[in-house]
UniProtKB/TrEMBL annotation:
EC identifiers of the protein: 2.3.2.23
Record-linked CDD domains: UBCc_UEV
Species per Swiss-Prot/TrEMBL record: Penicillium salamii
Compartment(s) where it occurs, according to its Swiss-Prot or TrEMBL record: Cytoplasm; Nucleus
Name of a matching Pfam family: UQ_con
Database matches in InterPro entries: UBC (IPR000608), UBQ-conjugating_enzyme/RWD (IPR016135)
Name under which the protein is recorded: Ubiquitin-conjugating enzyme E2 Z
Keyword Signal: no
Keywords attached to this entry: Apoptosis, ATP-binding, Cytoplasm, Nucleotide-binding, Nucleus, Transferase, Ubl conjugation pathway
GO biological process assignments: apoptotic process; negative regulation of apoptotic process
EC category name: transferase
GO cellular component, one term: cytoplasm
Sequence ranges assigned to domain UBC core in this UniProt record: 21-228
Length: 500
């Protein structure tokens, strides 16, 4: 499981009363998630109804789901459960109050209800348990009432109020497994001869399908302004009702169940696509080079898959590479349109243009004492395109280097976050071959925090390893490799600085 340390929620204090727990702690917990320095997931919610949560979990590194985007609805229960029969309360659980009882989880990444991304992640959105995974007893709460399911889980598999939302997110992430085939009951022996080939095939299917899904959705969303796009209103359908009906999906092909109208992950997808572009490209190129599957060969149906709940498709790495490059070009075009749109706003004396100019002037004054900053200016006096020239700090790995950086700011900031490109040809673990810089602002609303994040990233000589913070695979392998490899990394960094 990749980088579990970054998947953290602040535990709700068990000493709080029920009223305090409902009114304060969940909201504080979710605020903490939004402000935490983590990359493995993000959440969206409405503060007026914090029981309906949307989460994106990034596929854990080292699994077939690596760096894919998977969206889940998490509905925190409240009130009384439906009775088993008229006038007769449920004998097992008479209340659905949280945290006494677990949330309900629905996967929304389903390719319009047609794709089962794993044994436990059904095409109709249901998330079912694998034996031995205690958390997913949550399926048995509302789904038992609705479907009369009989599985209650073993003692160690059932929900406990002490587990909380952190357990929910970690358990969901555990379903994005290194070998998802073995999560299907009865197929959990990785050494059974007749399953070995199926396991490898299923891993490949699980990898290519989320990539296609992520690229397709992002390509369509690229044509929609993030400032105005919202999901359509929540329907009255249950998550289990009419799952194949078109009215359960919006115009982008996403499920509408439990979707807060404010939710918008477009910018999250786009920024991470630019960060992880080379990882995707390497995976696709490997598929083309290995030629294990011929283009056009259909996906093999697994023994536990059945019509309406399978992962259908065909192998087409060449076509996928074309789509990958096309999406990269679209995102770069969009980025370069921001200053053009911004100049029009500046001429119209729009509020955001005035605000950004003021922020730049204030940050410039604060940076005047920073000896490493050689230039901090607006390109062509455009407040939506900033230039930062940084001189490598003495006795650091970047000593002697002059690093030129462009900061593109969206007219829809902070809905769309800045995109930062290093124009100098530096070899660095935090700079992709596209020049995209990955960094962590402490707060995403104020550009000052972005500038601080950029500088801190450049000045950090020995950052801790985080597989979700890697945008240059080759440099990463060297930087955290053997001693000999680390020496090669340092030489390559120095050589790139000397070329500036």
């Amino acid at each position: 499981m990749g980088d579990q340390c970054s998947l953290r929620l602040i535990r709700v204090c068990q000493a709080l009363s029920t009223t305090e727990l409902e009114l304060t702690s969940p909201c504080q917990e979710l605020h903490q998630v939004e402000r935490s320095e983590q990359f493995a997931f993000t959440v969206r919610y409405d503060e007026s109804n914090i029981r309906d949560i949307l989460a994106i979990i990034v596929g854990p590194p080292g699994t077939p789901y690596e760096l894919g985007f998977f969206e889940f609805s998490i509905k925190v229960p409240a009130g009384e459960i439906a009775v088993e029969s008229p006038g007769t309360p449920s004998t097992d659980h008479s209340s659905l109050d949280y945290p006494a009882n677990p949330p309900t989880v629905v996967i929304k990444t389903t390719n319009r209800g047609r794709t089962r991304f794993g044994p436990n992640l059904y095409a109709n959105g249901k998330v079912y348990p694998s034996w031995g995974q205690w958390f997913l007893y949550m399926s048995g709460i509302q789904h038992l009432a609705h479907h009369r399911r009989t599985w209650h889980g073993e003692r160690g598999e059932q929900w406990s109020p002490a587990q909380g939302l952190e357990s929910v997110l970690l358990s969901i992430q555990s379903l994005l497994s290194t070998n998802p085939y073995t999560l299907e009951p009865g197929y959990d022996d990785p050494n059974r001869a007749n399953d070995v080939e199926n396991m490898e095939t299923y891993k490949s299917k699980a990898m290519i399908a989320p990539l296609e899904q992520a690229f397709e959705n992002s390509s369509r969303r690229d044509r929609v302004q993030a400032a105005t796009e919202t999901f359509l209103p929540l329907l009255a359908h249950s998550a289990a009702d009419a799952v194949d009906s078109d009215d359960l999906y919006d115009e982008l092909g996403e499920r509408r169940d439990f979707s807060p109208s404010h939710a918008n992950f477009d910018d999250y997808y786009k920024r991470r696509f630019l960060w992880y572009f080379e990882h995707y490209q390497i995976a696709i190129d490997k598929g083309i080079t290995d030629e294990v599957r011929r283009p056009g060969d259909p996906f093999i149906t697994m023994p536990f898959e059945f019509p309406g709940n399978t992962m259908m498709g065909e192998w087409n790495y060449v076509g996928l590479r074309t789509r990958l490059l096309d999406l990269r070009d679209k995102l770069m075009e969009e980025t370069h349109r921001w200053p053009v749109e911004g100049m029009a706003l500046l001429e119209a004396d729009a509020g955001i243009a005035v605000k950004l100019k003021g922020q730049h002037a204030q940050i410039l004054a604060e940076l005047s004492a920073h000896t490493q900053i050689m230039d901090f200016s607006l390109v062509d006096e455009n407040p939506f395109l900033w230039q930062l020239i940084y001189a490598g700090r003495t006795e650091s790995r970047l000593e002697g280097g002059i690093i030129k950086i462009k900061i593109y700011i969206s007219p829809r900031h902070p809905i769309e976050q800045p995109r930062v490109f290093v124009e100098s040809p530096i070899y660095h673990i935090r700079v992709s071959r596209l020049g995209v810089l990955i960094y962590l602002p402490s707060h995403d609303e104020d550009i000052k925090h972005h500038i601080d994040g950029i500088i801190n990233t450049l000045e950090e000589d020995n950052p801790p390893f985080n597989p979700l913070m890697t945008v240059h695979p080759e440099a990463t392998a060297l930087c955290w490799g053997s001693e000999a490899e680390r020496r090669v990394y340092r030489r390559k960094v120095r050589a790139s600085l000397e070329e500036m």
